[in-house]
Structures
1.
Amino acid sequence: QETAHVSLDHLRGLMGIEPATNILSVDLEALAAKIEADPWVAKAVVERELPDALVVRVEEHTAHAVVAAG
């Protein structure tokens, strides 16, 4: 799912899964950890949707302040 700061293209890049990958061979926890490495992502949940899809839910960090430097 796309969020305000994580586009679908960026999410696909974070996942790094090639087309035609067998979704049964995907380590869902490791994939969620890769997505959570993005600074905007607070939590990611990855689930299999058989027969051939992965569902990704992303929760973003909330910015609480903006600092202007300079």
Note: The mean pLDDT is 91.
2.
Amino acid sequence: LGEIALGQGRYEDASAAFESVREGSARRLDAMVKSGDAHWRHGLHLRGQGKDAEAEAEAKRAQELMETALK
């Protein structure tokens, strides 16, 4: 579901789907990276709308997810 939502530009739905993957799952790492991508894309979309503060929050969340995935 996350992949479909991401492809449709429904970034919030995509990140929620990816973040719902349970810890300990073999798919968790991939899901966290994809959630980070969804947050990053959402931030770019918001920045294009002039919503810089919200875009910055999305970029920060994307970075947090990527750093967590790399640990």
Note: The helical segments are 2-7, 11-19, 28-48, 52-70.
